[in-house]
Model the fold of this input.
Amino acid sequence: HVFQELENGHILYLTKADNSDDTYNELVEMDYLGKYYKIYELNSDNAINEGKSEEMTMVHHDAIELPSGNLLLTVNGDTNYIEDIMIELDRETGEIVKTIDLKDLLPSEFYEEYDETTRDDGKVDWFHQNAVVFDESDNSIIISSRNQDLIMKVDYKTSRIIWIMADEEGWPDDYKQYLVAGTGDSFKYTAGQHAPVILPDQDNNEDTIDLLVYDNNVVVTRGNESLSKEYSRGVQYRINEKKRTAKEIWSFGEELGADHFTNIVGSTRFLPQTGNRLVNFGYLDEDTHSAIFEVSENGEVVFEANITDFPAGARAYRSERYSLYNNNWEYSL
Done:
């Protein structure tokens, strides 16, 4: 799940010491020529498998670079609950310098009474955190939970909730103060979503933030059941963080219908050079096909790639557009 470019132009990715090993437990910083700069060997005691795969992983969905240069990883703890903990890894020493357990933030009944999904190993995947992004404007993180159908903003220093964007179903009264209310006749909360990204300022309003999200539109715990699985889409929300309201600004995918419904995986990315959006429908045709669209702000498809003939269990988890030549590098002839 982890393959991304760092600020210095290197690649951060998750791998394993030998291809015959069953656990992905090495996080590697490498350049495009294959030179290793750092290898973090992760303890494999709490590794889990994804889906029906026999292979195990420690960093189950995401790893990001913090402004400090440290790495924030989504991992598992040593309890029966999985995919609900983040750790900050010191970039230089490899030490864990901060831990966030999402069980400390949300109602205990959400994990103690969770039965919406099950696993063969009996582990409880009540949250299923599949993304985290850092908001430098207020030193917070934005988290995506597939199995709670929510996107949540948390103060990174205090681990206190700032807001929660999710359907109001099932929330205790003392959490309703955090809920973001959708506005507009066509507003729909995400369901089983992936890959939120923060867009550059769109409206010159310091009270708002624009998020681009891949809405799988598969209700796991809460949401609009009548629309569930009818389509998947990339969607842009404008959230007024002061008023705790949100409205939809842009979307693409509804017009493609059920043919592009994506039960798992998928991503959206903003392309600052053009203002276009890159949308990855990663799990199509019974997991044999991924479709990547680059779409303009007015909804015009300017690029489409269809990827097929995957080996069993493989697919496009996310799509990115990178230059081989990082802006931080210097060149001379």
In short: The longest strand covers residues 276-284. The two ends are 37 Å apart (CA to CA). The CA atoms of residues 167 and 223 lie 5 Å apart. The chain has a mean pLDDT of 95.
